[in-house]
Design a protein that fits this description.
Blueprint lengths: L12 E4 L6 H13 L7 E3 L10 H11 L2 E2 L3 H7 L14 H16 L2 H8 L5 E5 L2 E5 L17 H11 L3 E3 L7 E5 L2 E5 L14 E8 L5 E9 L3 H10 L4 H9 L10 H5 L8 E6 L7 E2 L27 E2 L6 E5 L27 H14 L5 E5 L9 H10 L3 E6 L3 H4 L2 H11 L3 E6 L5 H8 L4 H13 L3 E8 L5 H14 L12 E5 L14 H5 L11 E5 L8 E3 L11 E3 L9 E2 L3 H8 L9
Parallel strand pairs: 1-2, 2-3, 5-6, 6-8, 14-15, 14-20, 15-16, 16-17, 17-18, 18-19
Antiparallel strand pairs: 1-9, 4-5, 7-8, 7-12, 9-10, 10-11, 13-23, 20-21, 21-22
Helix pairs in contact: 1-2, 3-5, 7-8, 10-11, 11-13
């Protein structure tokens, strides 16, 4: 839906989100628009008129009388359809999930058929013009009404929607946090919510004013604080028996739960920001942002240079091999895909790590049988392992020796052409063979943002075949979408349920979600003091219980590395045998901090 041209003079545009059944805040927002001289047809609400507060019906009636534009939020969608929850996608049993049940039931009792009919008729998208530019007003993301998009959501995720919108920028709500970012010349803008503070420790709420800029095709974006009678709203919430956490939040400015927030936003809890904004110039290549820059701080060049000391001269942490429980075999870096952010840079052309043979892998299993009777699991990683012609022979060798075998795969054509021999292995060895399928996100568009066009359905088809045949399964996903981990797990749970995939999305072993890794991003170096400060046991890290065997292009023989993540860093090549590779590992790479110590991830459950 587009506002008709005859009602869209190139003047100010007043934006607000999330009235949330807070009548006092909604009235204050509408009064502010009037005070600023913005007519109702230039006022737009990003949805969720109804939510946490006591006055669901009164809020709907006020907004309707005001004659302002409203896009459908997930709350309107769910209430109009007679559903039983708000549709936010909270993890089942989380604090947000429990709290939402009470206010949603209250709102549903208050609303009548006419209110629900109005909600059902709301547009999901409204295109508006300002400063010679066009903005698409939506609720969550372009195709998902309840997708959370935060300041920390990666620019490439926002850019996907911005490019698909076909206009100059996007105005969105849902996350409840005000921010503006210019990405490749296009604006992503969230005016914030008026019905609940922004988790910044302030009682005031947020709205925004967009006005034509000083140059053609430019817009001045102002984020504005709004005062209102919060105490009266809180009193009514308590009288209605609504959750105390939300009533208290109106006075403290702090949300009762941060379940829906990603780590960067959790860290900003209680930090007030001053009103501000950006000047958006569509044809400039600058990237202004408010309240924080979207740019990632870069790593200081003096960090991670000395194996013994950090850049500050503190003793660098090391990790000893406590027991070899998992031995990884890298089958080669060739892959049928070229992912956007592959840690090992696998592509159909990258053969820096060549195919290892069954005989070469078997020599390490022989050594392990003599020196490491504790070895329980052999993992096969790549590249795409099923492209190595010796893979199934290596897997069977590992299984025949009594080990568990874990094969990482994208479950696409290289695996699917070997269905018959795979089934034969399962029949012989049962649950000791596990396949971990790489499914980066539950949303096909975001999975394909990472893995390339037309990659989601073939992987899903392969996963469903494995599930139908009764293979032991796990999933490897990624935390790159900017959503909180609980929200991502809930999304995967819905996907698995829809396709009868027997994987428990709440189990961190069954669904491993890897943090994003950027070797150039600034991260702290890990010192010997960090174990106590962080409460991390060094024996929990991968390099305390695993090693990886690789064969480099042109090398006479394979080598043993400390870590699956650092295939090309010579500092982590420990020797040609497992015995030589048993020495301690200095945590002298950014991935050691990001992925293992601070991210808490591991490639194996062993």
């Amino acid at each position: 839906m587009t506002i008709p041209p005859d009602t869209t003079p190139d003047g100010p545009l007043f934006l607000f989100g999330g009235p949330y059944s807070n009548l006092e805040a909604t009235a204050a927002a509408l009064s502010e628009a009037t005070r600023l001289g913005v007519p109702p047809h230039r006022v737009v609400c990003t949805g969720d008129v109804v939510a946490y507060g006591a006055d669901a019906k009164a809020c709907v009636e006020l907004v309707r009388r005001a004659g302002v534009h409203v896009v459908m939020g997930n709350c309107e969608e769910q209430l109009a359809a007679g559903e039983e929850d708000c549709g936010c996608g909270f993890a089942p049993g989380s604090a947000c999930d429990r709290l939402s049940a009470a206010w949603f039931a209250h709102a549903s009792r208050e609303l009548g058929p006419d209110d629900r009919a109005w909600m059902a008729a709301l547009p999901r998208r409204l295109d508006v013009a300002v400063g010679g530019l066009t903005l698409a007003v939506i609720h969550g993301s372009l195709d998902h009404i309840a997708r959370f998009v935060f300041p920390s959501t990666p620019a490439r995720v926002k850019a996907l929607d911005l490019a698909a919108s076909g206009v100059d920028g996007i105005v969105a709500g849902h996350s409840g946090l005000p921010f503006s970012q210019v990405i490749d010349g296009r604006l992503w803008h969230n005016p914030g919510a008026v019905g609940m503070p922004a988790n910044d420790g302030r009682r005031e709420v947020w709205c925004s004013l967009l006005t034509p800029g000083p140059e053609p095709r430019s817009v001045v974006v102002e984020h504005r604080r709004l005062e209102y009678g919060w105490a009266a709203a809180a009193t009514k919430m308590r009288a209605a028996g609504l959750p105390e956490g939300y009533a208290a939040a109106l006075g403290t400015g702090l949300w009762p739960s941060c379940d829906a927030l990603p780590p960067a936003e959790v860290k900003r809890t209680g930090r007030p920001v001053e009103p501000g904004g950006v000047v958006w110039r569509r044809d400039r290549d600058d990237a202004p942002a408010w309240p924080v820059s979207a740019a990632v701080a870069r790593l200081a060049p003096e960090k991670f240079q000395n194996g013994a000391l950090t850049a500050r001269g503190e003793p660098r942490a090391t990790v000893g091999l406590s027991s070899l429980r998992t031995l990884w075999i890298n089958t080669g870096t060739l892959c049928n895909l070229a992912c956007a952010n592959c840690y090992i840079e696998s592509t159909p052309r990258n053969d820096r790590l060549v195919y290892i043979t069954a005989a070469e892998a078997g020599a390490f299993l022989d050594e392990a049988a003599h020196d490491h009777p504790e070895l329980a699991e052999i993992g096969f990683t790549g590249g795409e392992p099923f492209m190595n012609p010796d893979l199934l022979a290596m897997v069977e060798d590992a299984l025949a020796r009594g080990h568990r075998a874990l094969v990482l795969t994208n479950a696409m054509r290289p695996m699917q052409r070997l269905k018959a021999p795979l089934l034969a292995l399962k029949e012989r060895y049962g649950g000791r063979l596990t396949l971990r399928v790489s499914l980066d996100h539950y949303d096909p568009a975001l999975h394909e943002l990472e893995r390339g066009p037309r990659s989601f359905q073939p992987t899903l088809d392969g996963l469903k075949w494995l599930a139908d045949q009764g293979f032991a399964l796990s999933i490897a996903g990624r935390l790159f979408s900017g959503e909180a981990e609980g929200v991502v797990r809930a999304g995967f749970a819905r996907l698995f349920a829809a396709h009868d995939v027997p994987v428990d999305a709440a189990d961190p072993v069954a669904l491993t979600l890897f943090p994003e890794m950027d070797a150039g991003a600034d991260v702290p170096e890990i010192t010997t003091a960090c174990w106590g400060l962080l409460g991390v046991d060094p024996r929990s890290l991968m390099c305390a219980s695993s090693r990886m065997v690789v064969k480099r292009k042109g090398a006479d023989r394979p080598a043993v590395l400390a870590c699956t993540l650092l295939a090309y860093d010579e500092r982590f090549e420990l020797g040609a045998t497992l015995a030589e590779a048993s020495r301690p590992v200095a945590l002298n790479h950014p991935h050691c901090a990001t992925f293992c110590v601070l991210g808490g991830a591991a490639c194996s459950a062993g």
